[in-house]
Amino acid sequence: MAECENPIRFGIMGCAQIARKVSRAITMAPNSTLFAIASRSIDKARQFAVRNNLSEEVKLYGDYNDLLDDPCVDAVYMPLPTSLHLKWAVLAAQKGKHLLLEKPSALHVKELDKILEACESNGLQFMDGSMWYHHPRTAKMKDFLSNLELFGRIKAIHSSSSFTGTSQFLENDIRVKPDLDALGALGDAGWYCIGAILWSMNKKLPTTVTALPAIARNSAGVILSCSASLYWDEGKTVATFYCSLISHETMDLAICGSNGTLRVEDFIIPYEESSAAFSFTSVAKFVDLHIGWNVKPQEVHVACKLSQEAMMIQEFSRLVKGIKLSRLRPDSKWASTTRNTQLVLDAVKNSIEIGFKPVQM
């Protein structure tokens, strides 16, 4: 098969926990291959290779620069702490490596713009690591939202992403360290919520963003839990989200339209790898005396031959191959998706810092 020929050769910079899932996805995708792993020490790279049963053909580096200097590496997946993204992402672009960057992509949009500019000026594909966009369920949900007869126009959205961090997590994980991932729950779990809301609104930025006063921080000042509201003047649409590292596991997305509603409980990580579902209700009414409904929610199941992570790698590799072999231009929609998410995240953070006042976009 043509797709399997000349696979895109990936290098992974950093041996974070998420890199285990992505390394598996790279080996599963038909048009990519895991070529190299780099860590801050060769011992950590070797431990990662052994733990994940990697082929002996995978190169191991004890320095990020060595991986970036390898001319055989086409693309880099970078799951480094957010505070290191600017330095290493820009350097990767300068070395001609296409960039799959773990979220949150940057500490703020000014940093992100420097990363995107480095990729654009070197003709390189950029994408962040939000895997759920690539699941076929996501496209199926968009079909329903786009059906004016069944769904109508969006009136309200709510999203949540939360989990209960262990005591060890809350003390030692990079996501609670101000010098590594200063955005905390907002950058980690909140990134998904904001992305889902903007995806629902076809990437249209809200008019106003307001953080809500219910917020929790650790002793270092890193956000462990927060929430916010977004408002669009046009259409009078409102959205809310809740993100937390100290609450029960949720990955919810609920979208209410003028004619229908859509709900999904596992939009970030599906309950099962091989299939995923969502429910929708259209033109629902109460029956006489309000003792029931005229319809029940319909459940739609969507099969997935590859994991959503592998589908992300497959799409990214397809774009890279088009640039590499056919001299196509990078697909800019992924950069704009990331930038819009970052802009709203920045607005939430700004609203928190100014006492939960509205921030105009």
From TrEMBL:
Stored InterPro entries: Gfo/Idh/MocA-like_OxRdtase_N, GFO_IDH_MocA-like_dom, NAD(P)-bd_dom_sf
Q: Where is the GFO/IDH/MocA-like oxidoreductase domain?
A: 151-263
Gene3D superfamilies recorded for this chain? Dihydrodipicolinate Reductase, domain 2, NAD(P)-binding Rossmann-like Domain
- Quote any Pfam family the record assigns: GFO_IDH_MocA_C3
Annotated Gfo/Idh/MocA-like oxidoreductase N-terminal domain ranges read 8-127
Q: Where are the transmembrane segments?
A: none
The record, for PANTHER family, names: GFO_IDH_MOCA-LIKE OXIDOREDUCTASE N-TERMINAL DOMAIN-CONTAINING PROTEIN, PTHR46368
State the similarity comment.
Answer: Belongs to the Gfo/Idh/MocA family.
Q: What is this protein called?
A: Oxidoreductase
| Species for this entry | Forsythia ovata
